[in-house]
Amino acid sequence: MARRSSDKIKGPWEIQPRLEWAPHSAEQTCLLNIVICVDAEVRGWGCNSVQLPASDAQRRTIYALSTPTGKAGVGVVRISGPDALDVWRVMVRLHSNRVRDPEPWKMECCRIVDPKTEELLDDGLAVFFKGPRSFTTQDVVELHIHSGRAIISSILSALSQLPYCRPAEPGEFTRRAFEGGRLDLTQVEGLKDLIDAETESQRKIALRAAGVARFEELRTDIIHCLALVEALIDFGEGEEIEEGVYEQARQKVIALHQTIQNHLSDNRRGEVLRSGIRLAIFGPPNAGKSSLLNFLAQREAAIVTPIPGTTRDILELSLDIGGLPVIVADTAGLRHTEDVVEKIGVERARNMVQGADISLCVLSLPEIAQDAPNTGDSLQYYIPPSIKPLVTSDTFFLLNKSDLAPHPTPFDHLLEGGGNHASRRKDRSWIVSLTSDTPSSEEPIITHARHRVHLESALRFLEAFLDTSPEDVVLAAEELRYAAQAVGKVSGLIDVEDILDAVFRDFCIGK
Ligand SMILES: Nc1nc2c(ncn2[C@@H]2O[C@H](COP(=O)(O)OP(=O)(O)OP(=O)(O)O)[C@@H](O)[C@H]2O)c(=O)[nH]1
Ligand SMILES: [K+]
Ligand SMILES: [Mg+2]
Questions:
Q1: Ligand that comes closest to the CA of residue 335
Q2: In angstroms, what CA-CA distances link 133 with 85, 127, 137, 177, 186?
Q3: Closest listed ligand to the CA of 292
Q4: CB 321: neighbour CB atoms within 10 A?
Q5: Which of 6, 93, 130, 249 could be bridged to 225 by S-S, CB 3.0 to 4.6 A?
Q6: Which residue has the least CA distance to atom 6 on ligand 1?
Q7: Any atom of ligand 1 within 6 Å of the Cβ of 287
Q8: CA of 453 to the centre of ligand 2 (A)
Q9: Coiled-coil ranges per the record (predicted)?
């Protein structure tokens, strides 16, 4: 049974996987709803921004297999660059046998041939996307072929013989799309995450990033404020410009400041969802930690024996729990020991627990029940001394081996009631349901540490604007310009002047 040491769960979001753990017999099923809440101060989120190859000055034509290698119905070879049409001319033979250039954006049945020998490589489909109306904004040819190892390699090697073509680097098609203005940086990151997304929630977050460029909206809003202030510099209130313009800008900035602050106080949900939650299983020896890990993994990943001190090193597994990526670590049982190897294991276990986002302490219910004669006492009196220093308000407890415990146990009161508490079922199974009081706030938009850094800097510039006296219009405008640039860095667009011109023209209609 898992139970949080504090009643209220502060975390803003939750996982609600339903674990049905019945290591010993079907009758003693232990149903467990773990709700994992991650608090603001999670540690160690690295910046995982996309690594793209260096810019290709010559913009040569590149090619690659765009679908996974291996046996499949269809594989797609993509060719992008100024010579894509030449590739078509030397390798694609239309079934109609008519010699003509492709009709753009139309799928055509064709034979794909070796450019030198005219030898047939495969029968398939081909389509020509005329730039800039293509993914990369360049001319693109796609060859839809039968996806077999031999066919794929014959087509790729035919392409490699063409002097004007070279194999694409990882991410290079996307890079060209970005450089062609087709995607902004957040969309590129979203696309990469989408390809990498292993679990459902990650997929959703990635889709969101790829679809909505929310940062662009923010930036445009800041630029609107800037336009208002710039208008004052150029014309001066009361003359050609209506009264109260500065105040209008101020109010907008206050609202924007709030919006950005809300995004920043998302407790890093977006980043956590992307990189996975680190869950450490710990507790005294023989409590059943490795059994729990094996249950979660649905396989015998860790060695389980009745001998205390079985696990020594840390065993980490990446799991998908309720659609969230969770990195679960099994650790050595915590106890004082003179054994050199076990000692190191215990030290590693402590460090792991301290570095984890969530820790789950497994205790043997019969063992702690032995020392707990009084019903109604809090669990914390019975936590073994070796465990206590690692227990925080965010530690979950799992009271294991309930099948061996006396009935009633001194801890039944902890497990009664519903909602945020645990409840006990009549059939000796247990349900613990810990749900967050705080409804999940808005969808997170910050999925990379890089976004956070720029948003924080934008926030500081907006604050500086609000602190500037309206007399100092020029200085105030400068702060807004910096704020827009900071947000612009998220999407990789910093051409503030261009947008400013456009917005400014609109704003000054007739003045
Ligand atoms: N009866 C009963 N036995 C259990 C339960 N869970 C685990 N065990 C047994 O308890 C023993 C210890 O289990 P492990 O999973 O190795 O315990 P551990 O906490 O990983 O132990 P160390 O790695 O030595 O610290 C094994 O014999 C398990 O089969 C349970 O719920 N009920
Ligand atoms: K053991
Ligand atoms: Mg173990």
A1: 1
A2: 14, 13, 6, 11, 21
A3: 1
A4: 19
A5: 249
A6: 288
A7: yes
A8: 45
A9: none
- Determine the distance separating the centroid of ligand 1 and the alpha carbon of 308, expressed in angstroms: 9
Its ipTM equals 0.99
Which segments of the chain have a pLDDT < 70? Answer: 1-59, 69-72, 170, 183-186, 188-213, 236-242, 266-275, 321-324, 372-380, 393-394, 408-447, 449, 491-511
Who surrounds ion ligand 3 at CB < 5 A? 289-290, 310-311
For residue 124, report the distance from its CA to the centre of ligand 3, in Å. 55
Cβ of 288 less than 6 Å from ligand 1? yes
Q: Which of 371, 397, 372, 385 is nearest to 282 (CA)?
A: 397
Written in H, E and C, the secondary structure of 211-260 is HCCHHHHHHHHHHHHHHHHHHHHHHCECCCECCCHHHHHHHHHHHHHHHH
Burial of 39 (0-12, 13-18, 19+ CB in 10 A): middle
Domain ranges of the chain: 61-168
Q: How remote is the CA of residue 410 from the centroid of ligand 3, in Å?
A: 26
Pairing of strands 358-364, 395-400: parallel
CA dihedral 379, 385, 386, 392 (to 10 degrees): 50
Q: Is 32 in the pocket of ligand 1 (CB under 6 A)?
A: no
Looking at ligand 1, which atom is closest to the CA of residue 311?
A: 23
Question: How close is the Cα of 29 to the center of ligand 1, in Å?
Answer: 15
> CATH: 3.50.50.60, 3.30.450.40, 3.90.870.10, 3.30.1360.120. Which one for 61-168?
3.30.1360.120
Nearest to 147 by CA among 89, 83, 65: 65
Q: Tokens 């410009």 identify what position? A: 241
> Which residues, in sequence order, are CB contacts of 460 under 8 Å at separation 6+?
none
* Ligand 1 centroid – CA 418 distance (Å): 28
Other beta carbons within 10 angstroms of residue 113's beta carbon come to 18
Nearest CA residue ID for atom 23, ligand 1: 311
Q: What is the pLDDT of residue 337?
A: 93
The pLDDT value given to residue 500: 41
Q: What pLDDT, on the 0 to 100 scale, is given for residue 409?
A: 67
| Ligand 1 touching residue 286 (CB < 6 A) | yes
Q: Which atom of ligand 1 is nearest to the CA of 333?
A: 25
Cα 19 from Cα 33, distance rounded (Å): 6
